Amino acid sequence: MFMLRKIFYLLFLLHTFSPFANADEPPVPRLYVSPNWRHGEIGTIMIYPTNSLPKVKAKLIDPNGKVRATVQMFPYRFNKREGGEVAAVAMFGLSPELPSGLYSILVTTEKSNDFRSWETSTFVIGKKYPHKTIHFGTRGSRIQSTRPSKERIRQAKRFYQTLETYSPGSIFSTGPMQWPIRARWRSSSGFGERRTFVYTNGVRGGDFHDAQDMAGLPIGTPIYAAAQGRVVLAEYRVVTGYTIIIEHLPGTFTLYYHMNGITTYKGKQVKPGELIGYLGTTGFSAGPHLHFSLRVNGWPVDPNIYVKKPILDKHWMLRTIRKAQASRRR
């Protein structure tokens, strides 16, 4: 019996470590995580290779064990010049509302007859943001104190359904955005500010500011699409006034609030820099400005960062893929 076990073990070692073992088997898909996950930024994960993978979902789980996001991964194919490889990708918006600390990432396939899973972890680095007090006049105070109408409730439902829509084939833009206003503007509220609202009736409220407010310009200043995409919402809303939402990648949207008017429509594909509306002060607004927001799978991230660097970190993806290919050739 001892001799049989010894022979079996030797055969196992030869099969595992032989340079010819599994030569015809496809490479094993592996999970990779982009470095440096910080508040206000986008964390990217990738499974490579993925040619034969079924649909997969990724969960982001906070240090307390709470699932903060569940995202269907989408296939991204690099062009021929970049190698033509395919990877499954998921992007997570690292909002300052998320606690900092060690997060778990769990990825699973959806088909029970081909179930596979991957698990890893990453650390989300926190950031401190300033506080600001904003005084609202009569109109803003009236909107705040008015009981939501049926139409306002319908608008809110439609708004959140739009942001929860995930279209894996909607890949319009991966690079840096451009500012939606070309004229020189000033920041009236920056991304991440903790704000206290003071109303004319003495009531106080507060929130976390999930956008960059662009002010210091007259009503009617042109507003342009920040990147190529598809308009998924274009309407007047009680709270945000004339509002546009543009989809750029699966689960990735730019939002434009408080406009004086809209020049586009739902379903239209827009080019970067295409006119979409005009600056205003409609809805729940303290003065003329554009509330410009970038949301990734429901969570807001800092648009100031992504006018300088790509929304999808293709450079990290390509480096990772080439390292994986080189290790297989050794």
Can you characterise this structure?
The chain is α+β, with helices and mostly antiparallel strands. It is 17% helix and 38% strand. Strands 11, 14, 16, 17, 18, 20, 22 and 23 form an 8-stranded antiparallel sheet that branches. The model is unreliable at 4-23 (pLDDT under 50).
Can you summarize the main beta sheet?
A: 8 strands, antiparallel
DSSP strand (E) fraction? 35-45%
Quote the distance from N terminus to C terminus: 37 Å
Overall average residue pLDDT: 87
Number of strands: 23
Helix content: 10-25%
Q: What string gives the helices and strands in order?
A: HEEEEEEEEEEHHEEEEEEEEEEEEEH
Structural class: alpha+beta
Shape: globular
- Rounded to an integer in angstroms, the radius of gyration calculated over CA atoms is 24 Å
Count of discrete alpha- or pi-helical segments spanning 4 or more residues: 4
- Quaternary class: single chain
- Give start-end ranges of low-pLDDT stretches: 4-23
Short key terms for the protein model shown above:
330 residues; alpha+beta; eight-stranded antiparallel β-sheet; 4 helices; 23 strands
Give a quick rundown of the structure.
This protein is an alpha+beta fold.
What's the topology here?
Blueprint: H1 2-17, E1 30-33, E2 37-38, E3 42-48, E4 56-61, E5 67-72, E6 74-77, E7 86-93, E8 101-109, E9 117-125, E10 131-135, H2 138-145, H3 150-164, E11 186-189, E12 194-198, E13 204-208, E14 212-215, E15 222-224, E16 229-237, E17 241-249, E18 252-259, E19 261-262, E20 269-270, E21 275-278, E22 289-296, E23 299-301, H4 314-329
